[in-house]
Amino acid sequence: MYDIQDNPYSTLLGVIRTDSDERKTSSWRLGVIASISPLLVRLGGHLLSGADLRINPSLLGGSRAISISNASSTLGGESVSGELAGTAHWSGMLEPGDQVILLPSDDGQQFIILCKVVNA
Questions:
Q1: pLDDT digits (tens, 9 = 90+) for 51-83
Q2: Torsion 53-40-58-64 (CA) sign
Q3: Which residues in 45-76 are b (16+ Cβ under 10 Å) and which e?
Q4: 94 near 102, Cβ under 8 Å?
Q5: CB 59 within 8 A of CB 51
Q6: Which residue among 50, 52, 56, 62 is least packed, with the fewest CB closer than 10 Å?
Q7: Mind spelling out the 3-state secondary structure of the chain?
Q8: Closest C-alpha among 21, 19, 46 to residue 32
């Protein structure tokens, strides 16, 4: 019977795999924002969009309905109280041309935009 442990090629393959694992580079990628709406990111010669991307929502602008109950203040010597309601708007951090760090999914089909980066 043949024993795989006696196979010199098995040992060589093990050395190659170990060396390969040690030489692996980071899976992080550097992309460039091509457009905000719709969101497009250039990665090398490819343009990523839609289902290709996931993003940290704090990087995007947006709006949200807000309300403050039991608000009270003094305005011009007069006491004012009640409920305040409105919409808060904020701008996003990203603009076309910005560099972003992308992390590929396990299957390499999607990229997560983690953060914006700038030159030091």
A1: 999 998 888 888 889 888 887 888 777 887 888
A2: negative
A3: eeebeeebbebeeebbeeeeeeeeeeeeeeee
A4: no
A5: no
A6: 50
A7: CCCHHHCHHHHHHHHHHHHHHHHCCCCCEEEEEEECCCCEEEECCEEEEHHHEEECHHHCCEEEEEEEEEEEEEECCEEEEEEEEEEEEECCCCCCCCEEEEEECCCCCCEEEEEEECCC
A8: 46
How far apart CA 91 and CA 62 sit, in angstroms, is 7
Dump pLDDT digits (tens) for 26-42. 588 999 999 998 999 99
C-alpha Rg value of the chain to the nearest Å: 26
Tokens of 24: 């692996």
Cα separation of 26 and 107, whole Å?
15
Q: Which residue has the tokens 């904020």?
A: 90
